[in-house]
Each structure stands twice: as structure tokens, then as C-alpha cells.
Specification:
The strands form 2 sheets. A 5-stranded mixed β-sheet has the order 2-9-8-4-5, with no helix packed on it. The longest helix is centred in the middle third of the chain and has 53 residues. It is rod-shaped and about 115 Å long. With about 230 residues, the protein is an alpha+beta fold. It is about 40% helix and about 25% strand. The protein binds zinc ion. The site of zinc ion has 6 residues, from helix 4.
Length: about 230
Amino acid sequence: MSLFGRESWRAEDRFEAWLKRVHQERVFSGETEPKGPCPDEAFLRSLARRSKSISLSDPRIDHAANCANCMNRIMAMRQNVRLQRRKLAFGLATACLIVIAGVAGWSRYEMYHRKTMASVAPVSATVDLWSTGTFRGEQPGQLQSVSLPSAPVRLTIILPRFSSPGQYLIAVTRDQSGNGVIAEGFASATASNGQERVSLDLDLRSAKAGEYFLSTTHAQDQAAYYYPLQIE
Ligand SMILES: [Zn+2]
């Protein structure tokens, strides 16, 4: 029953389309006689948009339906309306894509920005080893105050009294034998006010808070000294 109903509706639809085509052919070949003058553009536009404000008894509809000129205009306008709707849909889809891409790009930029910010803005810290023992193998006793943050650190070390000039390997390690290196780097000692200092960047972000060792190793004589270090 429903199938039959749908079939008959389709047939009706086809019949209407056929009527419309036959009628349009008659209009365009000049077989119809439109009554009255051509209505203005605004009226034709509301017809093209199938505006509900137009009364079906309006004589201008009868004219437009039988005038090749008006029908041409209406068909062109309808084409335009369809094109605009498609453009609007495409524009909306594009806008959605732009928003999605923008959000994704922005969050990636944010992550990148945070990373680079962390790597370009290290925490400055100075470790003063001036008064600690300088003899090889000597246990540096009184050094409880050395602590560094778990962050990229721009470290300056004032080397112990009588330290040699030259290159030093500076490292943060888990134990006093140099195992479990958290970060390390070479730096040249520079003398100022009679003190030898080394400066370098160490990235301590991978270190959890706890007890570590800061070591200085002179590149020429390989003398290594370990100092207790607290990472916070
Ligand atoms: Zn007309």
C-alpha cells in the first residue's frame, strides 16, 4: 500500500515536471500572451525565493508565468539563490575547518612556546665552592646549602681556592662515583677578583627532588671533586 502510494506520488511528481517543461517551452516560443506589464525586479526576486508573502491571486504571478522575459529573470535568480546557498554551505564548512586548524595550530604553538620559553629562560644560580677543600679525594664537609631547582639552570660556580684555570667538566650525578648523570657540560674557567669561575647551562628538568652530587672535573689533570647537592 505504502509502496504503491510512493510510486503514484513519484508519477505525479514526474507529471508535474513534464507540465512545467511543456509550459516553459510554450512561454519561450512565444505561444503565451502575458497580460499587463512586467512586474518590477523586487517582485520577481520574491517569486524566485518562493516568498510566502505573495498571494497566489496576485495577477503579476499570472503574467510572470506566461512571460518569457520574466521567466528568464526568475530562472536566473533561482540559479543565483542555489549558488549562494551552496557557497554559504561551503563557506560554513571552510570556516569550521579553519577553526579546527586554528585550535590545533594554536595548541601546538602553545606547547612549542612553553618548551622554548623554558629553554631560553633558565633559572640563574650561583654555587660558591670558594671555601671548600681543594685537595684531591678530600671530603667536602660543610656544604649543606647547595641546592638547585629541577629546571633549566644557568649555573655559575665559584671554584675552590687555588683551583687551576682551564676547562672543567661540570656534572650533576646520582652518586659520588659519577654514575647516573642528570646533566653535564664543559666550561672554561675565567678569573675575576682572584677567583676562578665557570658558567654553563644545565637542564635539570629530568631530576626528581632529592639528593644528588655536583662534580667538577679539571679537563687536564682529571681531578674530580664531588659536592652534595639538593635538587628541589
Ligand atoms: Zn514579463
